[in-house]
Amino acid sequence: MAGHSAWKNIKHRKAAVDKKRGKIWSKCSRAIIVAARLGGGDPHFNPSLRIAVDLARAANMPRDTIEKAIKKGTGEGGAEHYEPARYEGYAPGGVALIVECLISNANKAAADIRVIFDKNGGKIGVPGSVAFGFQQKAQIIVEGGSEDAIMEACLEAGIEDMHGDGETFQVLGPPNNLIALRTAIESRGFTVDSAEIVWIPLQTVDVSPDTLAEVERIVDALEDHDDVQKVYTNIA
Length: 236
Prior knowledge:
Blueprint: H1 10-19, H2 21-39, H3 47-58, H4 63-74, E1 83-90, E2 96-103, H5 106-119, E3 123-124, E4 134-143, H6 147-154, E5 161-164, E6 168-173, H7 178-187, E7 191-201, H8 209-223, E8 228-233
Antiparallel strand pairs: 1-2, 1-3, 2-8, 4-6, 4-7, 5-6
Helix pairs in contact: 2-3, 2-4
């Protein structure tokens, strides 16, 4: 489930991304276009663009496609206009969902998202009905290294929490510290797999296998929509 914050689902999420590469590239392009439009086309001076470009590279998006998206955002390569939007609601079993989008038509997007909720046993909510149960965090996924060494590297950069299995580590911190955390990790020679701002649930819920299958179905349907960038749940 893309965007799912639970540590044990990170590797599952990466596998799902590989299966949807073409659609992922389209979503990456939108993120780059919006970041370049809002903050300029130089990743060195636009942290949001740097994050978007890094995620595109992690998805193996071709360099020329990335450059075209940046030009579209700065107005050099045609007109494509998207705005960020967030939808909140519940999946079967009362599981909370946050759906982050980049949209070109607000009315169409809202109607489409509502239909997906309704058809898959969910219920869309009003703004704020779910978000109060989550916090935004900087998340760095690190491949390799030792937990103690990564923790030491991140202490002065504002690390708040860390999880790992000995091979892959999830580093969490304040959203504004994303670049500092990534820089601190890379400066020690560790490999960063991804670096992004995510929604982390304040409390998680356990669900039965049947309910989990229903939640995965609605998440997959949401992720398949072109406007949807990420879906977050509070499943443990």
